[in-house]
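Listing 4. Sequential folding, example run.
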Amino acid sequence: MRTAVRVRITGKVQGVWFRAWTREQAQALGLDGWVRNLSDGSVEALFAGPPAAVERALAACHRGPPAARVAQVTPTPVAADDIAAGSGFAQRPDA
């Protein structure tokens, strides 16, 4: 069983290594998806995989890397069928 969620993270989350840290966390959990900076200063990520692993990734986003100051994490469920299993987790260019 797979689940997927798109998440927006706000606070001091750009310029603090948040994208690379998120990629490392997601890869360690075996998740598929991506992470990118948004022009409004937030970070957006898409996590897809086993429900427990996705929940762990979301919990990690509430903490973030040491230099980050997370204000809010807003998840939105998406169709897991749209993300190919085994596609890996990437750091995308800024949007």
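-- end of first protein; second protein begins --
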Amino acid sequence: MSDHHNQRAAEIIKDIKYITIASVSADGQPWNTPVYSAFDKDLNFYWFSDKNSQHSQNVRGNNKVLLVIYDSTVPEGTGEGVYIKAVVTELNNPEAILAAKSVLDKRVGKDTERNADNYMADAVLRGYKATALQVWMNDDDEDEDGNYIRDIRVEVPLDSLRQR
């Protein structure tokens, strides 16, 4: 753990609005999809998607996902990403749906219609909440001469991110 990684992870989560969700289908096929998201003070991530999309079907069958938030805004070779092991819940009650919608609206800076019925029952869209279980970034492992050997994981404590 390093303060650099804690700070950069917090910056990337705050600044990058799209997360990539890695999920697995019922027959074991991997699926990766980017979604617009927002997060709350407890480091829960929210998005709304078509209930029939592949990633939505996947998380209903297996709620374990890997989220990646990658900062591609920096020069080539200097990009960094945050990796988040999480569990996903499909939001089914009006209070949770409206709370998620509020978090997303704040991130966009606008106030959209908030009607939970638009995300329940026969509606096409559903709200999702991913709860972070573990967070890390990659870094370089180097030999004594400073030569790259391999990528290593550097864990970023959840409490550190929540405080930032």
